[in-house]
């Protein structure tokens, strides 16, 4: 009996391009709101923000440089395609964070609302990138590798790293800002942990 070939579920170039553009843009807005509120965050973005707060250097260049050591692991474990997509996403985010303030500014934002909004925006940004074989570098690359290799969910790996980073943040920011930041990081990681499931979603 002849069977009908199934259509491929693989994303095409246009799909990937819009996901990388969406993910980079939404993440950059999340970073702008985060720094507007004086918060911190997790992953390599959080590391870059802490360095930026401590030194006065711009977030964009620091974030770009901080991610460079992780691309080799990404290439070895997840392939050139993943690394190229991730490099483009990181470069776009680094550029957008420097460019968007001329067109987007925030006024009064309650810390609780800001924290949840940051978590939702950044979580949806990372989810879009993950679904299209990309990340915002750094710990995201490690987290995705561990999930593919062991089944340990990417969101939980990031949550562990975030806990360590937030402990360091207490020496640079007041505890209220760190507490609200932790809420945003929790929302972000729950979005990823619940929704990024290869056993549940095809794409």
From TrEMBL:
Predominant location: membrane
Keyword tags: Cell membrane, Membrane, Transmembrane, Transmembrane helix
Record's GO cellular component terms: plasma membrane
Annotated source species: Paracoccus laeviglucosivorans
Keyword Protease belongs to the record: no
Membrane-spanning residues: 20-39, 45-70, 82-102, 108-130, 177-194
Protein name (database record): Uncharacterized 5xTM membrane BCR, YitT family COG1284
Stored InterPro entries: UPF0750_membrane, YitT
Pfam family, one: YitT_membrane
